[in-house]
Amino acid sequence: MTTDASTRSSRDLPHPRHAEIRLEAVLHALSDPIRLQIVRELAVGGDELSCSHFDLPVTKSTTTYHFRVLREAGVIRQIYRGTAKMNGLRRDDLDDLFPGFLDSVLAAAARQAVRLGE
After folding, report:
1. Which residues are in the HTH arsR-type domain (predicted)?
2. Which of 3, 5, 25, 94 is 20 to 30 A from 100 (CA-CA)?
3. Pairwise CA distance, residues 77 & 5, whole Å
4. What are the phi and psi torsion angles at 79 (to 5°)?
5. Consecutive 10-residue averages of pLDDT for the chain (118 residues)
6. Going by C-beta distance under 8 Å and a sequence separation of 6 or more, which residues neighbour residue 93?
């Protein structure tokens, strides 16, 4: 993750640039059910959602960890708006790098949720 330290504020979070996003990191990030749930909610929301929007069955520190894994893999972008940390799906980057991948994963996750009665 390359970021010019002279232009970053203390509240800026490091994100991989478009060219730095790796399929292996994205696959790892999406392999966890909690992280997949976050991505599914962001895909449905279509816009930015605050961390507090998500009702996850884990502790706050574990939730923070899951968001960090998604951000560092390039799956989501996180920015501060006031005191809220907002999360958005990096759909354009993922669709450009891996055409059809995200839609396939989301469709498969939705079918699985129906199959498992979630």
Report:
1. 15-109
2. 3
3. 18
4. -140, 150
5. 47 90 97 95 85 84 93 96 91 97 96 90
6. 18, 21, 74
pTM: 0.85
What is residue 6's predicted lDDT score, i.e. its pLDDT?
41
* Closest among 107, 72, 114, 66 to 90, alpha carbons compared: 72
Phi then psi for residue 55, to 5 deg, are: -105, 90
The full DSSP string for 64-102 is HHHHHHHHHHTSEEEEEETTEEEEEE-HHHHHHHSTTHH
pLDDT at 53: 81
Residue 47: C-alpha distances to residues 66, 77, 87, 91, 110 (Å): 19, 11, 8, 11, 19
Domain residue extents for the chain: 12-112
Cα-Cα-Cα-Cα dihedral sign, residues 56, 93, 72, 13: negative
The pLDDT of residue 47 is 80
